[in-house]
Specification:
The chain has ten helices and twelve strands. It is of the alpha/beta class and 309 residues long.
Length: 309
């Protein structure tokens, strides 16, 4: 039986780093550690300048020094993903400008994307993440309906609509996040297409690691051993700006766990590269309804209990 992953590796591992709050100073040491360990991952960016006063900010590609840092990561084999055009609501023309600026500054379009916070142009976000009418109702009740009409990236006729641009220019979008080290257990059809969300070519799920504490919990030793034993897939969603570096030094427990993981039989490639391999063709498989319903139920339960993304 042929090996599932390249170079006869047993499992696949990557990280999607959400750019919220990121600067070279507070994420650079983590990337230097990953490069030293031979682990290549995905870092998202904002191509356009930060909007002052938005709830969340961080460095963008309009900062010359930060652009140089990101280009250096790209040259070293890290993937650069899209995290909306900027850190605040972006009408269609701004999103289009952001996609063009990404190509101009980095030389190629992004493959991977994750919606940012509560930007109005987010695609299939809030209650629209859920196909189940009952679960959508539960989401709206739990959030007091404040996101019912908030997200409009997929809504034709809205000034924030860019679904057609997404379908044409992007490949993989992050959706559900789970407190689980091996995504095969929950989402074996990954990447997947959801016919109810036609503007997204393919979705991927991820593992909960949004802060350094939850990241270290996810990658505790018994979880690493189980991922290897099961020959699974782990794509961690995180924010390296959230406590991973203190006074220029990588969190010691994080460094220890990553060094241990790097010694295992893993394929450590960027998110888009792993998803290309799993997809194995030009189009993603359509997810079975029962698999999607199970994912939606588990995600909503986890979100309401933990407040995760």
């Amino acid at each position: 039986m042929p090996a599932r992953f390249p170079d006869n590796q047993v499992f696949a591992f990557s990280i999607f780093d959400d750019t919220d709050g990121a600067t070279e100073a507070n994420v650079g040491p983590v990337y230097r550690l990953l490069a030293e360990l031979g682990i290549r991952t995905t870092k998202s960016v904002w191509p356009l300048a930060e909007v002052s006063g938005a709830p969340l900010g961080g460095a963008t590609l309009q900062d010359a020094a930060y652009l140089g840092f990101v280009r250096g990561l790209q040259a070293d084999g890290f993937e650069i993903g899209f995290h909306n055009a900027r850190n605040f609501d972006a009408p269609r023309e701004v999103t289009e400008q952001g996609l063009a600026e990404f190509v101009d500054l980095l030389g190629q379009p992004p493959r991977t994307h994750c919606n940012h916070h509560d930007n109005r142009e987010n695609l299939y976000w809030g209650p629209a993440r859920l196909n189940s009418v009952g679960l959508r109702l539960g989401y709206n009740l739990a959030t007091l309906g404040r996101y019912r009409r908030r997200f409009q990236g997929h809504a034709e006729g809205s000034p924030y609509f860019w679904g057609d641009l997404c379908r044409e220019r992007l490949r993989y979008l992050r959706n559900f996040v789970f407190d689980e080290i091996n995504l095969d257990v929950i989402n074996p059809t990954m990447p997947y297409h959801d016919p109810a969300k036609p503007y997204v070519p393919a979705w991927f799920s991820s593992c909960e690691g949004g802060t350094v504490e939850s990241f270290c919990r996810l990658l505790r030793e018994e979880n690493q051993d189980r991922l290897e034993a099961q020959g699974g897939v782990c794509l961690v969603y995180t924010h390296f700006a959230k406590g991973f570096v203190v006074d220029g030094v990588v969190h010691p427990e994080l460094a220890r766990l990553m060094r241990r993981l790097a010694g295992k039989s893993g394929w450590f490639a960027p998110v888009g590269t792993i998803l290309d391999h799993l997809q194995g063709g030009l189009t993603a498989a359509t997810i079975p309804p029962e698999e999607l319903r199970h994912m939606e139920t588990r995600w909503l339960r986890h979100k309401l209990c933990s407040g995760s993304s």
